[in-house]
Amino acid sequence: MVRYAISLYLSEHDINPSHVMDLLIKASTPPKGTRAKISDNMRTRSLSIEQCREIYRILTSDAATPVHTGLLLMVFLGLDASEVSGLNCGDISPITGYSGRYNLQIIREYRKVDKKYSLVRFNNINKYRFVPIPSQIYARLPKDRSAGEPDAPLLTIRNKRISPDVLTEELGKLSKGDANSLVLESNGRTRSIDLSFQPSSYKLNCRYYWKYHCGMQSGEINYLAGLSPDDTVSAHYIDYNNATMQLRMLSQMEYGMAMMNVSELNPWYKLDNRFVRKQLNVPAGLNWKAGVKLRFSKPAELALSTERGMTVICGGFVKNDKGS
User: Fold this and answer.
1) Is the pLDDT of residue 264 over 50?
2) What is the spatial distance between Cα 175 and Cα 199, in angstroms, rounded to a whole number?
3) Where does 13-65 have alpha helices with state H?
4) Whole-angstrom Cα distance, residue 6 to residue 2?
5) Measuring CA to CA, how many Å separate 226 from each of 45, 95, 97, 244, 255?
6) What CA–CA distances, in Å, run from 171 to 100, 210, 320?
7) H-helix segments, 187-281
8) SS3 state at 43
9) Distance of CA 62 to the CA centre of its chain
């Protein structure tokens, strides 16, 4: 309250309070003890790819609920619980010029105002953003949303909007890391400091995942996370809302999702001979093998393409009883 009063006074007198407020915060913040310093600097803030795969497996299992879908958006898209709860059906939009590619419009949050949950706009301008939706996650979103109103909540429980408290509680059950304790002796007493991964660090883990597993640049990461641009180029010369940039970020995110090594579809298909031309999309991941059997009744032209490279192994040609 004191800091707020001082800030208000300086602003009324056309004085920038930033420098004064920084000094006040430093002077009024009590110094951290040894345990707090060790915990802040040595605690694990990122998960291994194996742990991410296990979380993805749980969130996309046959028993997954809308709450699991919300956690999927938090863990792999870096959204706040309040942002996920604030999503409406109309917030999913196609990326212009790229069929079958979508993003989320993050324009509001669902948080408590006067002890009651309400949909509110952001105060931080960086929070307004488009977040591409990897195909692996898009497939998990509600299928019946097109039949509803654009302002209807995207994720519900018993026809009610999922609250951030529910998502935060379930996240705590989901992302507890392996035990990792440090024993510290002080003044003849032995104390244990918990250095294991905490659920509250999920956003830091997401940014680590984007950088080291998706290969994204710092400007892209800050944009997707709703943070301030970290350099002049990102702040003034790159339009991250541009469809081409959205597709670039989406491709990087899907590359990272491929490391989850989970196929959403059966890898064996049949082509309908009644169609002269047909496109066949085969899901695959890092170090993942996808097998396809093709049967042709007449000579045909086959074209293969991929966004991330592939090795084609042909198993040979087999004639059926009719000699085709």
Assistant:
1) no
2) 5
3) 18-28, 34-42, 49-59
4) 6
5) 19, 19, 25, 19, 21
6) 30, 19, 54
7) 202-212, 218-225, 232-236, 243-258
8) coil
9) 20
Residue 242 — φ and ψ, nearest 5°?
A: -60, 140
| Residue 165 tokens, joined | 């408290």
Q: Both tokens of residue 311?
A: 């090795």
Is the pLDDT score of 223 beyond 90?
yes
Angstrom CA distances, 68 to 142, 177, 257, stand at 12, 18, 16
Q: Which long-range contacts (CB under 8 A, 24 or more apart) does 234-241 make?
A: 240/129, 240/130, 241/129, 241/130
| pLDDT tens sequence across 38-93 | 667 777 888 888 889 999 999 999 899 999 999 999 999 999 999 999 999 999 99
Q: Which residue has the higher pLDDT, 110 or 29?
A: 110
Helix orientation angle between 218-225 and 243-258, rounded to the nearest 10 degrees:
90
**CB neighbours of 90 closer than 8 A, spacing ≥ 6?**
149, 150, 151
Structure tokens at 226: 């709703």
Query: What is the enclosing helix (H) or strand (E) of 182?
Result: strand 181-186
Is residue 218 predicted with pLDDT exceeding 90? yes
Other beta carbons within 10 Å of 220: 21
CA-based angle 177:178:182, to the nearest 5? 110
Instruction: Categorize the per-residue pLDDT at 107 as very low, low, confident or very high, splitting at 50, 70 and 90.
Output: very high
Please tell me which residue, 130 or 9, carries the higher pLDDT value: 130
- Look at the chain and count its residues: 324
| Dihedral Cα 54, 55, 59, 63, nearest 10 deg | 50
In the chain, what is the greatest distance between 2 CA atoms, to the nearest angstrom? 93
**Hey, what amino acid is at 113?**
V
List of residues 6+ apart from 97 with CB closer than 8 A? 243
Residues facing residue 105 across a β-bridge: 130
How sure is the predictor about 290, in pLDDT bands with cuts at 50, 70 and 90? low
pTM of the model: 0.71
